[in-house]
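Design a sequence for this backbone.
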């Protein structure tokens, strides 16, 4: 299979996973195939979560999750999370991964809203030490549609996720935080731009879930302007993992390359890699339109903006 050919020299993926499903050599083979300089592994807290970074300390950034203590969670006492955050950083993690904004995850883990007092000591410490955070907040709009067995229609609405997010950002306007999957705000670009303007260290990544690509393709000129305006705040990312086939992993990277670098019209390479026909996004659109971004903007989105967020190179392990 041919390696993905980028227009720029440096490509850093802000959002990959190593799920301990396949050997490290296979994961490395994927990253070679998609032509990356570096990648950021979003992972857990356990000692083996740093294994890939230990093997290749200059190739991998690693963001870890902070576990919840069930008794303290039930009591709403989150002071311990500030201490665990310090420990995470001291162990050589480059930042924090959070799932606490994903409605299905919250329901399962019984975590409170992110603007609840339980999270307050964590947010205060994170803002204080300026640690980078990548957070999964909300989910695609069509998750709330009543069709399907896993519908969110009985959960709080998507807008409640945005209310919590804004409440935290208002309290900590300088939080260094990236919201994964474009914060599912593809349908509301003006609002996302307003948040970027108000919260100067807030970013989004492009990890697939590809919902946002369909919305941006509704008005490619507007989307292109948005990328140019916010080139420092949009991070290339794919959600590639060791559990992907080579074909699927390559499709994820190549699809975003087409979207960013070219003015081509195309359908989902990911669906094709799954052996499916192209399924429409929740706006009913099937065709995607590339933005043909200028080279200096590509350099930002594909690498430099992540470095500005998480540091010019991975932190050394202790
Ligand atoms: Zn992910």
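Sequence:
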């Amino acid at each position: 299979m041919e390696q993905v050919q980028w227009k720029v020299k440096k490509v850093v993926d802000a959002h990959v996973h190593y799920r301990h499903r396949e050997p490290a050599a296979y994961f490395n083979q994927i990253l070679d195939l998609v032509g990356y300089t570096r990648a950021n592994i979003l992972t857990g807290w356990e000692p083996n979560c740093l294994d890939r970074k230990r093997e290749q300390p200059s190739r991998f950034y690693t963001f870890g999750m902070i576990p919840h203590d069930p008794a303290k969670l039930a009591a709403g006492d989150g002071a311990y999370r500030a201490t665990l955050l310090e420990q995470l950083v001291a162990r050589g993690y480059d930042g924090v991964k959070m799932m606490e904004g994903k409605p299905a995850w919250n329901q399962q883990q019984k975590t409170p809203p992110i603007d609840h007092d339980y999270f307050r000591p964590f947010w205060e410490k994170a803002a204080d030490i300026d640690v980078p955070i990548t957070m999964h907040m909300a989910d695609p709009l069509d998750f709330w549609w009543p069709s399907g067995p896993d519908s969110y229609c009985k959960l709080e609405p998507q807008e409640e996720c945005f209310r919590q997010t804004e409440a935290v950002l208002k309290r900590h306007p300088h939080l260094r935080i990236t919201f994964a999957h474009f914060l599912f705000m593809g349908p509301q670009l003006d609002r996302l731009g307003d948040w970027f303007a108000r919260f100067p260290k807030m970013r989004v990544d492009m990890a697939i879930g590809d919902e946002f690509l369909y919305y941006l393709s509704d008005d490619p000129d507007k989307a292109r302007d948005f990328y140019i305006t916010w080139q420092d705040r949009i991070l290339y990312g794919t959600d590639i993992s060791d559990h992907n086939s080579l074909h699927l992993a390559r499709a994820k990277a190549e699809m975003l390359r087409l979207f960013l670098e070219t003015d081509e019209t195309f359908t989902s390479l990911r669906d094709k890699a799954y052996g499916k026909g192209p399924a429409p996004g929740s706006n009913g659109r099937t065709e995607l339109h590339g933005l043909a971004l200028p080279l200096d903007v590509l350099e930002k989105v594909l690498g430099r903006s992540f470095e500005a967020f998480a540091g010019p190179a991975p932190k050394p392990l202790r």
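The pocket of zinc ion is lined by residues 15, 17, 42, 207, 239 (CB under 6 Å).
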